[in-house]
Amino acid sequence: MSRVRPIPRSSDPAHEELGGYTTVLAIYGAATSMMLLVASRRGKLPGRFRVVDLAMFGIAAHKLARTVATDAVTRPIRAPFTDEATTAAETPVEVPARTGWRKPLGELFTCPFCLGQWSATAFVVGSMFAPAPARAVASILVVRSVSDWLQLGFGGLERLATGGDEK
């Protein structure tokens, strides 16, 4: 016979953490629902999307999420929600804040997978209200992705050709 676990009280740190995550989730759900409702009422909600747009927005959402979550230049975006920690090798790394409202936002802003959902939503909804700017920004990120792939491929070929691990 299984026992039912009690619901955590508000003084329980685990409950407080869930509150922050629940709030972030509620904001996302409410904002997305509202934008889709407005798009529908204004006749901007497409019956279907072109495959080429979905591919472009998918690559762009991936690149935007990785850029915000991992690039050094976007550290100021993450900084209010992160703390610095040290790895076993004494290397400083960014980690989500450990407590309070900063924690769920720190988890969001340091996780490219988590940000991918928000980025994808921004591109798809953006394409309904401002298609040209949404496609322009997506195009920049897609071209950047292609550039990244070429840089990685070129670097790999250089290492193969020289037999070394140099950049």
Commentary on this structure:
The protein has a two-stranded antiparallel ribbon. Helix 2 (51-70) packs across helix 6 (131-162) and helix 5 (112-129) runs antiparallel to helix 6 (131-162). Strand 1 and strand 2 (92-96) form a beta hairpin. The model has no long low-confidence stretch (mean pLDDT 89). It has one domain. Helix content is 66%, strand content 6%. The chain is mainly alpha-helical and 167 residues long. The protein starts with 12 loop residues before the first helix and ends in a 5-residue tail after the last helix. The longest helix is centred in the last third of the chain and has 32 residues, at 131-162. The chain has six helices and two strands.
Summary?
With 167 residues, this protein is mainly alpha-helical. Helix content is 66%, strand content 6%. Helix 1 (13-41) runs parallel beside helix 5, helix 2 (51-70) crosses helix 5 (112-129) and helix 5 packs antiparallel against helix 6.
SSE topology sketch:
Layout (H helix, E strand, L loop, with lengths): L12 H29 L9 H20 L4 H4 L3 E5 L5 E5 L5 H8 L2 H18 L1 H32 L5
Antiparallel strand pairs: 1-2
Helix pairs in contact: 1-5, 2-5, 2-6, 5-6
Could you tell me the strand content as a percent range? 5-15%
In the predicted model, the low-confidence regions spanning at least 5 consecutive residues are none
Q: Report the radius of gyration as a whole number of Å.
A: 21 Å
* Shape, principal axes of CA atoms: flat
Number of strands: 2
Largest sheet, described in full? Answer: 2 strands, antiparallel
* End-to-end C-alpha gap: 61 Å
Strand order, largest beta sheet = 1-2
Average pLDDT score: 89
Structural class: mainly alpha
Helix content: 55-70%
Count of distinct structural domains:
1
How many H/I helical runs?
6
The H/E string reads: HHHEEHHH
